């Protein structure tokens, strides 16, 4: 890779952006056509994902040679921790208490994403993983914004019940700068590879698999 970190991030977002109609669940929630069963399953599946991703980001932080990269992944882990409390509020609004979350049987199509992120935490070059996950954040944030709007308009969820999606829909306080600093430090040290786009393509595919598996319940 010879481009700058900022250029690579722009390229990754463009090349890896999902097609307009690839996600089958989010439009259903936005239009009020998804079942409450699917919405409750969304809460339960996300509960497992957030806990897993929190650990994955901490592992990635521990593997980073550059302080900027370590700070980036530590920040992501902190965000997952904050999101977990909001997720419990979403689950409660969906009719799930702690026991129901514990008893829930996850679906393989939904858990492929966190499983791959855990694989990346152990095997991926952190510079490449940074680029891949940030490229996916734009799509994830847009999905969360649409879901929050749909939950309020069609399902009677209040601000507390929507706080999980509001959290991820909001722009990051520092924008892309922490990720760009992390990627640039890796590139300067010769650690960036073309695998970043392979990682990003698979992350985006597993992201869509998550939503479309839940769409079968809608």
Automatic annotation (TrEMBL):
<protein>
    <submittedName>
        <fullName>TENA/THI-4/PQQC family protein</fullName>
    </submittedName>
</protein>
<dbReference type="InterPro" id="IPR004305">
    <property type="entry name" value="Thiaminase-2/PQQC"/>
</dbReference>
<dbReference type="InterPro" id="IPR016084">
    <property type="entry name" value="Haem_Oase-like_multi-hlx"/>
</dbReference>
<dbReference type="Pfam" id="PF03070">
    <property type="entry name" value="TENA_THI-4"/>
</dbReference>
<feature type="domain" description="Thiaminase-2/PQQC">
    <location>
        <begin position="26"/>
        <end position="152"/>
    </location>
</feature>
<comment type="pathway">
    <text>Cofactor biosynthesis; thiamine diphosphate biosynthesis.</text>
</comment>
